[in-house]
Amino acid sequence: MSANKQATFTHTKFVDPTPLPESVPKVDELGVTSAPLKSASFFIGQYCKEYNDDFMLCKSENNDPKHCLTEGRKVTRCAINLITKLRENCGKEFEAHWQCLEKNNQELSACRTPERTFNTCVFDKLGLEKKIPGTPEGSEQIHNKKNPVY
Amino acid sequence: MPVPFESLLPFAIIAGMYVVTATGLSVTRYYSNDKKPTRHGLDTWEKQMMERDRRLTGSLRGQSDSPIASAAFATNSIWYLEKQRNH
């Protein structure tokens, strides 16, 4: 009975180091961690909109990972492209914003001041503007409000 | 006659115990989070992102903004073969 059961107290996690097959084109993975990614998220959404939409529509057709490899590669390349541009043009403001996010539980509402300088820099250099899609017509974007609470 | 200071010593001792344990806990959490404030209110998304950060940088709170990941990142994800149980 207990001789046939498997040991359930495994201490090492299973990691599979075999790489993808050679038939799949090689693309570098995005190396940005969560805080800089959150900081750049709205700009990625605007800059890479077509590729992201293609990938989402492809996934909604068929959720199999093999089905959407091409669209996925385009998404990754677009994001890498934008992060490189952000670091070149607005590196200091970008770093300031995501360091602030790391200190504040990654809450965007806690870091509006560095976010303002970062957004103006990105708008001047790259022409991207952060817009939150669900805001009601007529009311200002929440990150631009001078007094969001009162 | 006013209250003697000796009678308030037990309160001071007990309050001091609270101060010591709270400071100890706060300092432990600070240093175990790479000298950053603790993250709270974590949902599944945040936990998955922190696991991804661990795969990229080695620590759950480590951050990096290099666009291209190291080569090991492509294959170092954990496969959960068994249902996670607490014994």
TrEMBL record, chain A:
Please state what the protein is called.
NADH-ubiquinone oxidoreductase
Q: Which GO terms describe its cellular component?
A: mitochondrial inner membrane
Q: Does the keyword Membrane apply?
A: yes
Task: Give the organism's phylogenetic lineage.
Answer: Eukaryota, Fungi, Fungi incertae sedis, Mucoromycota, Mucoromycotina
Q: Does the keyword Signal apply?
A: no
Alphabetically ordered keywords of this record: Disulfide bond, Electron transport, Membrane, Mitochondrion, Mitochondrion inner membrane, Repeat, Respiratory chain, Transport
Name the source's superkingdom. Eukaryota
- Record localization: Mitochondrion inner membrane
Domain CHCH, by residue range, is 90-123
Describe the task this protein carries out.
Accessory subunit of the mitochondrial membrane respiratory chain NADH dehydrogenase (Complex I), that is believed not to be involved in catalysis. Complex I functions in the transfer of electrons from NADH to the respiratory chain. The immediate electron acceptor for the enzyme is believed to be ubiquinone.
The family database entries (Pfam families) matched by this protein are listed as:
CHCH (PF06747)
What are the recorded Gene Ontology BP terms? mitochondrial electron transport, NADH to ubiquinone
The family this protein is said to belong to: Belongs to the complex I NDUFA8 subunit family.
TrEMBL record, chain B:
Write out the annotated subcellular location: Mitochondrion inner membrane
Q: What is its main location?
A: mitochondrion
* GO cellular component entries: mitochondrial inner membrane
Please give the superkingdom of this protein's source.
Answer: Eukaryota
Keywords recorded for this protein, A-Z: Electron transport, Membrane, Mitochondrion, Mitochondrion inner membrane, Respiratory chain, Transmembrane, Transmembrane helix, Transport
Entry annotated with the keyword Membrane = yes
Query: What's the protein's topology in the membrane?
Result: Single-pass membrane protein
Q: Name one Pfam family in it.
A: MWFE
Q: Where are the transmembrane segments?
A: 12-31
- What is this protein for, i.e. what is its function? Accessory subunit of the mitochondrial membrane respiratory chain NADH dehydrogenase (Complex I), that is believed not to be involved in catalysis. Complex I functions in the transfer of electrons from NADH to the respiratory chain. The immediate electron acceptor for the enzyme is believed to be ubiquinone.
Tell me the protein family, please. Answer: Belongs to the complex I NDUFA1 subunit family.
This one is known as NADH dehydrogenase [ubiquinone] 1 alpha subcomplex subunit 1
